[in-house]
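Appendix B, record 7
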Amino acid sequence: MSSVFLHQRPIQTTLSNPSSLSPRFSNFTQRPITIFSRTGLLVLLSLMVILGVFLPWSELPEGLFSSTRPALTKWRSYTLAQAASFVAKNGTLIVCAVSEPYLPFLNNWLIGIARQRHHEKVLVIAEDYTTLYRVNEKWPGHAVLIPPVVDTQTAHKFGSQGFFNFTSRRPRHLLNIVELGYNVMYNDVDMVWLADPFPYLEGNHDVYFTDDMAPVKPLNHSHDLPPPNKKGRTYICSCMIFLRPTPGAKLVLKTWIEELDAQPWSRAKKANDQPAFNWALMKTTKQMEHSKEDKVDLYLLPQAAFPTGGLYFKNKTWVKETKGMHVIIHNNYILGFEKKIKRFRDYGFWLVDDYYSESPLGRL
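Structure tokens (predicted):
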């Protein structure tokens, strides 16, 4: 909170005979009251007592006695529709969902996007008020919070109920955006951009996605939904998705939400959002094959351009063979903040230490 200074002009008297004042009172009026004087401290103490008696603490202006500046609290009423309208460029948004512990990853991710000149269309969906305020303080209008706020302290351990609660909000965010009429690219922030991905979003498909499997595919592999694995479902990554505002994309998102509702987290079955996304892709594809309606148009992005971490960081031969083809690399197949940061540093992808000035957030 900014420092508060109390200023008081010298007291002016309207008496016709100023000399009638007692010498003591006269001397008092000649000394300005400061916050550091005995009188100033008494005045300040009295003011605090009056506020405590006559104004309930719940009714005090937010930020008066807190670290949140009042200028930032306006973002509480900032809506997704307002944010999308402000941020979108050519009808397209790039979206991520972030809680406070992931702010360093957000900053690192933004540097790669800024180098490709797409940062102005980034919208950060803040999962807590600290993230909402910190991003909008540095980069006004580029963060929005969609209530309710989840318990972000329990949302970081993969496989936990908190993680499920956190990630299961993703399809609802994306559905809200496409229903507003925007194209939207979703990324997890443990990714790094090495090139511009938009030239790879060719055609007018409904949903674009990447394979999360590590086995090497041929460079000319099919762009259809891959066949199911031994578990009976595909293994598509829910961390890099591009959707157009089409009926097919909306159907996939609604089916994804239904799958999450039907298969909630439990101690016995520690679910996350990705299996539900795969079931949704498979169900909508089969549903449309037997329907008179148009088929949902799905598109698998090229593996060489969008490799999973299980391939890029574990197959040096493949990396050399595909050098120059890599566009977005996902730092998955590893758990833990520090391990992810170390891996990025080892490969020269932890940019935020030396190049934070290239991020619209600067140094956080």
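Remarks on this record: The mean pLDDT is 81. The first helix runs from residue 23 to 30.
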